[in-house]
Write a structure and sequence with these properties.
about 180 residues, mainly alpha, two-stranded antiparallel sheet, about 0% strand
């Protein structure tokens, strides 16, 4: 029964008649069909999805832990490399200083040898100059003696006189 109020038609929202019973039966049958064919699959899908999400979080946590371990290992390797670099630089500096000292020592030795050779050469030259001076002084002495005695001596005689003059005058005075 549908009461009419004015020109409008008013129907009840829920009517308890045969249609309602068919709707309930249809709903129940659909529920059983869905339960048998779909709900279990949907539930399994949702559980699998939930497990994948949990596994992803666990995997991400494991990856983070592994990344932190690698970062610590990397930092240790960097520190080790830094210490090794410092040691290598220190060793290189020590070797360079030692090599420099060796080079300086060799240079000093060479310089001392050159000075010694130069002194020996100077001494030889001085000896040669002293000998030359002795010869010239002796020649001058002979010439002076010739003039004094006005006599000509032969070369052999001159050499004998020169040797006697040198021996007689003392060799120490010529070396100074």
């Amino acid at each position: 029964m549908i009461p009419i109020l004015g020109a409008e038609l008013v129907a009840p929202l829920i009517g308890f008649d045969a249609t309602f019973i068919f709707v309930l039966i249809t709903f129940f049958i659909l529920y059983l069909i869905f339960k048998k064919f779909f709900f279990e699959k949907v539930r399994d899908f949702m559980q699998a999805r939930e497990q994948k999400v949990i596994d992803s979080f666990d995997n991400a946590a494991a990856v983070n832990v592994q990344a932190e371990e690698r970062l610590l290992e990397y930092n240790k390797k960097l520190e080790s490399a830094e210490f090794e670099r410092r040691d290598l630089l220190k060793d290189a500096k020590t070797k360079a200083d030692l090599r420099a000292q060796t080079i300086i020592s060799e240079a000093n030795d060479r310089a001392a040898e050159i000075v010694r050779q130069a002194e020996a050469e100077i001494e030889r030259e001085r000896q040669i100059a002293v000998e030359a001076m002795r010869d010239q002084v002796a020649m001058l002495a002979v010439l002076a003696a010739e003039k004094i005695i006005e006599k000509q001596l032969d070369e052999e005689g001159q050499m004998l006189i020169i040797d006697e003059i040198i021996k007689g005058s003392g060799q120490d005075s010529w070396t100074h």
